[in-house]
Amino acid sequence: MLELRPSCEHCDKDLPPESQDAQICSFECTFCNGCAHGVFENVCPNCGGGFTARPVRPAKAWKAPWWLGDHLASTKKVHGPKNVKAHREFAKDLKKIDPHYR
Q1: What is the pLDDT of residues 64-96, one digit of tens each?
Q2: Who contacts 88 (Cβ-Cβ below 8 Å, separation ≥6)?
Q3: Average pLDDT over all residues of the chain
Q4: Rounded to 5 degrees, what angle do the CA atoms 63, 64, 69 make?
Q5: pLDDT at residue 72, rounded to an integer
Q6: φ, ψ of residue 33 in degrees (nearest 5)
Q7: Residue 33's Cα: distance from chain center in Å?
Q8: Rounded to an integer, what distance in angstroms lies between the CA atom of residue 54 and that of residue 56?
Q9: CA–CA distance from 79 to each of 31, 57, 76 (Å)?
Q10: What residues contact residue 27 under an 8 Å CB cut-off, 6+ apart?
Q11: Phi and psi of 49, rounded to 5°?
């Protein structure tokens, strides 16, 4: 189950469970849209994968127990600003490859 991390790993922007601004890679590295696609150019600085929109967990028990009330979002921040200059060097070739083929 997704952790639904509470903030961007790079800029620490709040990303509450209902945020449509949250982007994740397949390892759940979590960034805001501005960092994921602007700063990191769709190359995860942790693993090299691509980003996709993080799903929003239902806030209402439409079909209990599968909702936010029974499966809370994480409150643990994973924050550590990345070295953007080093990332650009790391990503210069990766960003040319479709994330599905990295």
Answers
A1: 999 999 999 999 999 999 999 999 999 999 999
A2: none
A3: 97
A4: 120
A5: 97
A6: -60, -40
A7: 8
A8: 7
A9: 10, 22, 9
A10: 44, 46, 47, 49
A11: -75, 180
